[in-house]
Write a structure and sequence with these properties.
This protein is 39% helix and 19% strand. The chain has helices at 9-12, 39-42, 52-63, 75-87, 101-118, 139-144, 148-151, 170-173, 180-198, 225-236, 288-296, 311-326, 329-348, 384-395, 424-445; strands at 18-22, 25-28, 33-36, 92-98, 126-130, 162-165, 203-208, 211-212, 219-220, 239-243, 267-270, 282-287, 354-360, 363-368, 397-398, 400-406, 409-416. The mean pLDDT is 95. It binds pyridoxal-5'-phosphate (PLP).
C-alpha cells in the first residue's frame, strides 16, 4: 500500500500492511507471515499479538487512562518506579518516565545541566558523546548523536555544546597489532583529552551506549573500556549517562546492559523493550545525588511532557517485567543468544562479504564488507543494506539493516534483535532465511 502517513522512501515503496501478530511473527493483509528477527527496531521483546501485557494495558484503559502529573501520580507509575529502582544499578534512586528513547536522553542531558546549576557550577555546560552513536532524533539527542549521515543537513541547528570522541569498535578501528585492552584504553583516554581540552570545569556529562545499536550494529566495547571511562568521569566530576534505549531492558541478557561492564552510571536511559512495542514508554533513571541536589535547590526538574508517567504505558511496563520474571525470559535471551551467535558463526563465519559477527544476548550484528581481508565496505551507492532488507522481507524475515558511517565511508550491517521468547526452531529459521536473503542481495551487487 502507498502510505500517506510515512515520509520519505517509504511513501514511494509499496509496503505490506501489517494486520495481525502471533508470537514472533507479524502477518500482513495477504496472510504472509514475517518472522520478526529484529523486534522492529529492537522494540518488540515479547513478540506480537495478544498477551498479558496487552491485557494489562486494556484493563488500565478501562480503569483510568490518563491523569496529568501536575495534579496526580498513579499506582502503575509508582509501582513501576519502585520495581525499576530495586533492579537498577547501585546508586540509582529516581525514575522519570517519558514516552520514548529520544525523550529519555533529552531528559538526562537537561538534568545533567540542571544538576550543575543547582550545585553552583554554572560553567559546566559541555556534553561529550561518541562518533557512530545514536541517541535519538530530536535536536538535543541528535546533537549528541555521532552518526554523520543523520546529523548532516541539520548541523546548523545542532547544539555547539556537544563534542565527540571516537567510538570503541575494536574490529573496525584498532591499529595493526593493537590488543583489545590496549585499544580500549587508548580510545577511552580520548575522553580525558577532550575534557582537558574543553576545561574540566566546563564539562557536564559523557553519554554513551554500552552496546552500540542502530549506527554500528550491536557493537559492545572491549573489556575495561567502560571502567576506564568511569574512572575519568569520576576524576573530573563529569556525570556518566548510559543510553540503554536499545541495548537495555534485558536485550543483552541482563536487565541493564551496564551490569556486564561492572560500572555504575549516574543516569541511565531506557525505552523500547520496557514498553515492548505495546505502549510507548521510556525512562530516565538517575542517582540519588542528582535528585537530592535538585530537591534541595530549586525543588523541581525544569522539564516535562504531556504524557510523562502515563498510567497505561507504565502499567504495560509493569506487565513486561512480570513476563520477564514469570517465564525467566532473560535466561532465554542468554541461551537463545548463544545459540543464534553459534548458528550465525557456523553459517556465515567463513562466508565472503561477512566481515564481523558480534553482539551480546539477543542483540547481534553482522558487518558486511566488499573485501574481508581489507575490511573495505561496499560502495554506498549499491545500497546493500536496503537490498538485504527487501530480499529478507520477500523470504518472510524482518532484519534491521543499516548503512552506518565508517571513517567517512558508508558501511553496511544487519542488526538482529528478535523477541526474548524465541525458540531453537526460530533460531534455525532466522539463519536459513537470512542466508537466502544474503544470496539474493550479494548476487545483485556482484
Ligand atoms: N537511543 C538509542 C540508543 C536508540 O537506539 C534510539 C532509537 O533507536 C534512541 C535513543 C531514540 O529512541 P526513540 O526512537 O524512541 O526516540
Amino acid at each position: 500500500m502507498r502510505s500517506r502517513h510515512l515520509f520519505g522512501r517509504h511513501t514511494r515503496a509499496d509496503l505490506p500492511v501489517a494486520v495481525a501478530g502471533e508470537g514472533p511473527y507479524l502477518i500482513d493483509a495477504e496472510g504472509r507471515r514475517y518472522l520478526d528477527a529484529c523486534g522492529g527496531a529492537a522494540v518488540s521483546c515479547l513478540g506480537h499479538g495478544r498477551n498479558p501485557v496487552t491485557e494489562a494495558a486494556k484493563d488500565q484503559l478501562d480503569r483510568m487512562a490518563y491523569a496529568h502529573t501536575s495534579f496526580f501520580t498513579s499506582e502503575p507509575a509508582e509501582e513501576l518506579a519502585d520495581r525499576l529502582i530495586a533492579l537498577a544499578p547501585q546508586g540509582i534512586e529516581r525514575v522519570y518516565f517519558v514516552s520514548g528513547g529520544s525523550e529519555a536522553t533529552e531528559a538526562a542531558m537537561k538534568l545533567a545541566r540542571q544538576y550543575f546549576l543547582e550545585t553552583s557550577q554554572p560553567e559546566r555546560r559541555h556534553i561529550i558523546a561518541r562518533w557512530q552513536s545514536y541517541h535519538g532524533n530530536t535536536l538535543g539527542a541528535l546533537s549528541a548523536g555521532g552518526n554523520r549521515w543523520r546529523r548532516g543537513q541539520f548541523e546548523p541547528l545542532l547544539s555547539g555544546a556537544m563534542h565527540h570522541i571516537d567510538a570503541c569498535h575494536y574490529w573496525r578501528f584498532a591499529e595493526e597489532g593493537e590488543g583489545p585492552e590496549e585499544y580500549g584504553l587508548r580510545v577511552a583516554n580520548q575522553l580525558e583529552d577532550k575534557i582537558l581540552a574543553l576545561g574540566p570545569e566546563t564539562v557536564a556529562a559523557f553519554i554513551a551506549e554500552p552496546v552500540v545499536g542502530a549506527t554500528m550494529g550491536a557493537v559492545p566495547a572491549v573489556p575495561g573500556y567502560f571502567q576506564r571511562i568511569r574512572e575519568i568521569c569520576d576524576r573530573y566530576g563529569v556525570l556518566l549517562i548510559l543510553d540503554e534505549v536499545m541495548c537495555g531492558t534485558g536485550r543483552t541478557g541482563t536487565l541493564f546492559a551496564s551490569e556486564q561492564e561492572g560500572i555504575f552510571p549516574d543516569m541511565v536511559c531506557i525505552a523500547k523493550g520496557i514498553g515492548a512495542g505495546i505502549q510507548p514508554l521510556g525512562a530516565m533513571l538517575c542517582s540519588d545525588r542528582i535528585f537530592a541536589a535538585v530537591e534541595a535547590g530549586s525543588g523541581f526538574f525544569q522539564h516535562g511532557h504531556t504524557y510523562i508517567g502515563h498510567p497505561v504505558a507504565t502499567r504495560a511496563g509493569l506487565a513486561v517485567l512480570d513476563e520477564f520474571e514469570k517465564h525467566d525470559l532473560l535466561s532465554n535471551v542468554r541461551e537463545m543468544g548463544n545459540r543464534l551467535m553459534t548458528a550465525l558463526i557456523g553459517r556465515f563465519g567463513n562466508r565472503s562479504h561477512v566481515g564481523d559477527i558480534r553482539g551480546r544476548g539477543l542483540f547481534l550484528g553482522l558487518e558486511l564488507v566488499d573485501n574481508r581481508m581489507t575490511k573495505t565496505p561496499f560502495d554506498p551507492s549499491l545500497n546493500l543494506h536496503a537490498r538485504i532488507k527487501k530480499a529478507a522481507m520477500a523470504e518472510g524475515l524482518m532484519c534491521y539493516p543499516m548503512g552506518g558511517t565508517v571513517d567517512g565511508l558508508r558501511g553496511d550491517h544487519i542488526l538482529l534483535a528478535p523477541p526474548y521468547t524465541i525458540t531453537e526452531e526460530h533460531v534455525g529459521e532466522i539463519v536459513d532465511k537470512l542466508d537466502r536473503a544474503l544470496d539474493v542481495a550479494f548476487e545483485q551487487v556482484a
